[in-house]
Design the sequence.
């Protein structure tokens, strides 16, 4: 069997599988073929949950004695949108001007194609690594993400799998390959604050209690002081008000209720719990102040509801993992990458409960867009970086 050492050939095969979440589209089968050529064992657990589609996942492993490295990612892709708007069809892997076009080219079939090629080159040159390499690949990252990475990690851990480090191959570079490694993420917390007033006629405000000024006081208290200045590794925590809702169509009625939803991206100054306590304190103080409410005697009557589960903040403190990957990037592209905790959440937030995790992949500029594409040169560069990492990490 020929080894899958060419990242562009690997990627073309994967792009030609139309694996729009939750459809497997043969993408995992194609990957399974590549991993079999590398002598990996491959399992394909399917996870189900009421109200969500069943999802196929893949766990492949090249087992050996020594440390265990996990490569994590997903073969599902977002829908192509208007296919006629694409310069080249989204599932054809057409090449033009040194770029390969297709949905998933950078997010993140490209990352998988490069890691497979890197491992194939490693095996070809050095034989099996002195340790284990596993592939934890889900088909449910771009969808509800319920039957994907979380369950796959639990499934593998129940079978006794233990990992020493993980690389997630999501696109992390803003402009050029080698710009940025992600070594953690901010946490995320959402809440809804509702102010209860008393409905009435605008001409007789003393008989009513307008909730809008009260809500303004509360939002001001959330926004006026920064939560922190940022830390060595993180940007300052930031609160955004995402919607303010009163829903009152009449101009002569004081509404009964007003609410607003906010989301905070927070750094390692806080835990979700300490941040919730800080928000309660700010709201309680602002409710008592009555600055915008004339001579109201009662404090603002409000409720707060936390929406969804907060995502915790995390920072990878495995110096060897971060240093080895940074040095691999530098040796191939000639410059050290920025170590960043910016951006949204990713599956790394689940993996960090099992082992230290970093994220490094392609340039993210065209992800989820029409004409998603990757430079063939970037595929080769990323493969070389992953190969160098494998050589150094298993040395
Ligand atoms: Zn992705």
Sequence:
């Amino acid at each position: 069997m020929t080894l899958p050492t060419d990242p562009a050939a690997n990627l073309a095969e994967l792009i030609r599988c139309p694996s729009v979440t939750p459809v497997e589209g043969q993408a995992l089968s194609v990957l399974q073929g590549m991993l079999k050529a590398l002598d990996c064992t491959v399992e394909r657990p399917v996870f189900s949950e009421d109200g969500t589609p069943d999802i196929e996942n893949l766990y492949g492993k090249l087992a050996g004695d020594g440390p265990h490295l996990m490569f994590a990612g997903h073969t599902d892709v977002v829908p192509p949108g208007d296919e006629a708007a694409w310069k080249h069809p989204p599932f054809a892997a057409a090449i033009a001007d040194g770029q390969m076009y297709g949905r998933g080219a950078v997010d993140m079939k490209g990352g998988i194609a490069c890691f497979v090629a890197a491992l194939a080159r490693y095996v070809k040159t050095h034989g099996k690594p002195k340790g284990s390499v596993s592939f934890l690949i889900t088909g449910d990252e771009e969808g509800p993400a319920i039957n994907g990475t979380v369950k796959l990690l639990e499934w593998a851990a129940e079978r006794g799998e233990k990992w020493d480090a993980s690389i997630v191959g999501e696109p992390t570079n803003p402009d050029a390959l080698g710009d940025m490694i992600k070594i953690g993420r901010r946490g995320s917390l959402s809440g809804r604050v509702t102010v209860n007033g008393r409905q009435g006629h605008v001409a007789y405000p003393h008989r009513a209690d307008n909730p809008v000024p009260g809500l303004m006081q509360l939002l001001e208290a959330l926004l006026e002081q920064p939560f922190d200045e940022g830390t060595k590794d993180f940007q300052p925590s930031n609160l955004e008000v995402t919607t303010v809702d009163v829903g009152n169509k009449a101009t002569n009625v004081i509404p009964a209720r007003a609410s607003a939803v906010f989301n905070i991206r927070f750094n390692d100054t806080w835990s979700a719990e300490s941040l919730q306590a800080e928000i309660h304190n700010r709201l309680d103080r602002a409710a008592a102040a009555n600055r915008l409410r004339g001579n109201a005697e009662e404090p603002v009557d409000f409720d707060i509801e936390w929406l969804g589960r907060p995502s915790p903040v995390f920072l990878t403190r495995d110096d060897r993992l971060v240093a080895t990957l940074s040095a691999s990037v530098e040796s191939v592209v000639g410059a050290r990458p920025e170590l960043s905790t910016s951006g949204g959440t990713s599956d790394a937030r689940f993996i960090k409960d099992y082992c230290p995790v970093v994220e490094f992949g392609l340039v993210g500029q065209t992800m989820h867009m029409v004409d998603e594409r990757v430079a063939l040169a970037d595929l080769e560069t990323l493969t070389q970086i992953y190969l160098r990492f494998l050589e150094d990490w298993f040395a």
Observations:
- The first helix runs from residue 7 to 15.
